[in-house]
Amino acid sequence: MSEDPCQSPPSTFLTRESNRQLMSVLSAPSAHRRALPRELILQILSHPSRWVLAWSDKIIDPTSLNHIEHARILLSTPALTARSARLLREVVFTIRSHDQGWSSFPEHHGTFENSWTWFEAVVLNKSEESGHATNVGLNSIDIFDSTNVRRHHLQSNRHAIGQAEDHTISIGRGHEIFNGLKAEDRILLVAFAQYSGWVNHIQDAKIEILEEDDLNE
After folding, report:
1. Taking Cα atoms as reference points, which of 184, 197, 213, 152 lies closest to residue 22?
2. Which among 184, 206, 164 is positioned nearest to 60, based on CA atoms?
3. Strand intervals (E) in 70-183
């Protein structure tokens, strides 16, 4: 499995309160300018630099899985509302992890080639949850039997590197995994390990959801 990361550096996220304060300033006239109309202020708030952190969660304790378990849901967002699905602009996944630290393929050591421990983003609708194990921390899941489950490879561990590495992967609303995003969808972070001897060690993992602020809350 080759690596095709879409990584970006960590960001400092805004809160809705900071945007309220900005709106208060811009909507009031000053000695040097007129008050800005609400429509223009909303355009300003739609800029990526003004997106707000709407939700975040992280794993508390380090964990690991091998090829026998194969896959584990590390984190799951709450079911989106119609409003949150409409306003979602970016999802940031932060992972600190490594594999078992050895393999029988020295030519691939230190690369992402033939790495069989990795992470995926999954979008799962509530209608698909019936009969599936979708709670965080379960030892096995079978959500991938459905053709309606949307998956995207986020990150592989570097091959046979026993030291944890940090990865931050941002996916914007325009990504195909978010096509048709709607109410009752959940966004999952899933860890994988495949083939005998491969172990995915996860020290930290986090999901953060950024939304455009429409000032309606």
Report:
1. 213
2. 206
3. 71-76, 88-98, 117-125, 150-156, 165-172
- CA dist., res. 192 & res. 201, Å (int): 10
Alpha-carbon distance of 63 to 202, in angstroms, equals 5
Partner residues linked to 200 by β-bridges: 65
What is the DSSP secondary structure assignment for residue 103, as one 8-state letter? -
Whole-angstrom distance, CA of residue 147 vs CA of residue 127: 13
pLDDT reported for residue 2: 38
pTM: 0.82
Taking each helix axis as running N to C, give the angle between helix 16-26 and helix 38-45, from 0 to 180 degrees, rounded to the nearest 10: 140
CA-only gyration radius of the chain, Å = 20
Q: Is 171 helix (H, G, I), strand (E, B) or coil?
A: strand
